[in-house]
Amino acid sequence: MDSISSLQNKLDSGRIIVMDGGTGTEISRRGVTIDPRGSWSANANTEFPDMVRQIHIDYILAGAEIITTNTFSTSRATLANEGLSAQTEEINQKSVSLAIEAREHCDGAETVVIAGSMSAFEPKGHPEVTPSYEEALQDYREQVKILVESGIQLIALEMFSRTVDLKAAVQAATETGLPIWVGLSCENHDGQIYLGIAGRYAGETISDAVIASSSPNVKAFCIMHSPPKVTADALKELRNCTSLPMGAYAHGGSIDDERGITQNQEQGSQWEKYRRALGATDPEKYLEYVREWVRCGAIIVGGCCGTTPDHIRFLTTNNLK
In what order do the strands lie in the sheet with 246-249? Predict the structure, then answer.
């Protein structure tokens, strides 16, 4: 049985599946400068391929059953922020090949699934701005075609906090025939859960996102890149909106910050800024959060920005229930 069939069997039986953790922040932690306002860690695929490959290897060795390509910010529209749009095909192809090489290195062809990441359309961090549906659809169609032809097995839609680009991404992904996991970013605003990140929201809800994601190819919904303290409440709301399997992979956020709003990031190294921004939740504390998410019904767990192979190792070597 191949790895994607095995993964679906696990989902169908309700077994817990462990994904990898953050890639962009892990690249930064290992000393490579990334641009959170540009194309994030996209340039690392071609400029530091050995590092990207090793990060995938480290996650597999930590026990991750899914590794996610470093393509979160490699659509043409996002690469254009740094003048890299002409390298769209090269950067996306290279990212998938690095993930495949890492899996081969670990003899994981039957046990490790390669998920192709596609993220919210531009501007990513501002859900209150409505992009053009047609522009988003064209962009997603180009990227997902490259990813599928390069060898991904699963499409991971990540950090969506608007329904217009989510709907476009689902349409483009559905056209490939591959399974889709939808990743929603949420925040708590005045006691209510909304789609949004870092204190910015446009009034759309998890229910709105589930409706916008209508497709037979959508096989799971995840709450991801959300503050850990918000994630459990978002999962409870998500459970009322769908009968599909649920997952959770938060950023390594501050345990005292309900909304993930960041402050005091002007001094220190780039990684230290991320540590302060995200709170750098340690693996033991993150494990406690994951156990809460499992109690809320999550069967897919992992990490996002600020989490490391050590966080994933804690998940795979400890009882999650």
Answer: 17-18, 298-301, 246-249, 218-224, 180-184, 154-160, 113-119, 66-68
Average pLDDT over all residues of the chain: 92
Selection from 254, 247, 234 nearest residue 294 by Cα: 247
Q: How confident is the model at residue 265 (pLDDT cuts 50, 70, 90)?
A: very low
Asked if 181 and 222 touch (Cβ cutoff 8 Å), the reply is: yes
CB atoms under 10 Å from CB of 215, counted, come to: 15
* Residue 143 placed within a domain: yes
Give pLDDT, residue 278: 47
Q: Specify whether the CB–CB gap between 199 and 252 falls below 8 A.
A: no
pTM (2 d.p.) = 0.93
pLDDT tens by residue, 154-172: 999 999 999 999 999 999 9
321 falls within a domain: no
Q: What is the pLDDT of residue 38?
A: 82
Is 292 a member of any domain? yes
Length of the chain: 321
Domain total of the chain = 1
**Greatest mean pLDDT among 36-50, 206-220, 275-289:** 206-220
Q: Residue 26: left if φ>0, alpha if ψ -120 to 50, beta else—which one?
A: alpha
> With the CA atoms of 163, 167, 173 and 175 taken in that order, what torsion angle do they form, in degrees rounded to the nearest 10?
180
> Which residues span the domain enclosing 240?
3-316
